[in-house]
Amino acid sequence: RAGLAPLEPLLAARAPTRNARLAAAHLNNGLGVALFIQSRHAEALVALERNLALFSELYGDDSPQAGLGAQNLATLYYSSAQLALAEEKVELSLAIHRKHLTADDPRLAIVLDLKARIDSDLGRTPEAIAHAREALAISEKAYAADSIEVATPVGTLGEVYLMAGDFDAARPLLQRSVQLARVHDRAHLELNSARSLGLLETYRKQP
To answer: What region does 105 belong to: left with phi over 0, alpha with psi -120 to 50, or beta?
Structure first.
């Protein structure tokens, strides 16, 4: 917290000029992300909501900056299990990203991956599969097949199939995600995919 404290008086100060408001917007964004990483979600929410409001005001409601702000908020809401709010923000972000980015831009894949996870948690399996497949296809085109950037969408698609009960489709994807995470020493990702593989085997044994 000590490292973040110097920013807070700046964010609290009024910002009458455009440059000052731009600085406040970016400070809010950075502070919000830092607080989110520290699991200080309530404080992160205040900063990220302010960031989106300023980005929308300064750049436009459908600007790339607003799209990023909505994406960060969607991620926070999803992590807090506020699915309705997460869905609202991720759909806004996805619409903006599709407007400004090419169809094979890896930044689009990040939003699609989040959308797939939200869809899956809301029980919208066909939409979840479609978005997860699109995210993986973009990532595999943009990066090497054995890169860490591919591991997350591979794991997401595997988890979507797992939740849909398609164990045969889920297993190779989750195994691939575990292998990639292990190669790149990403313990958290490896643990998540390994846990999903364990669930898969448990489900398969049920009558």
So the answer is: beta
pLDDT score at 189? 58
**Residue 143 DSSP code:** S
Cα–Cα distance, 205 to 199 (Å, whole number): 10
Please tell me the distance from the alpha carbon of residue 101 to that of residue 142, in angstroms, as a whole number.
14
Per-residue model confidence as pLDDT tens digits over 120-130: 999 999 999 99
The radius of gyration computed from the CA coordinates of the chain, to the nearest angstrom, equals 19
Q: Which two tokens stand for residue 53?
A: 């409001």
Q: Which residues contact 105 (CB under 8 A, 6 or more apart)?
A: 97, 138, 142
Burial of 116 (0-12, 13-18, 19+ CB in 10 A): buried
DSSP track, 17-33: SHHHHHHHHHHHHHHHH
Separation of alpha carbons 61 and 56, rounded Å: 4
- What CA–CA distance (Å, rounded) separates 175 from 162? 12
Nearest-CA neighbor of 86 among 53, 123, 114, 127?
A: 114
For the whole model, what pTM was predicted? Answer: 0.82
Q: Letter for the amino acid at 52?
A: L
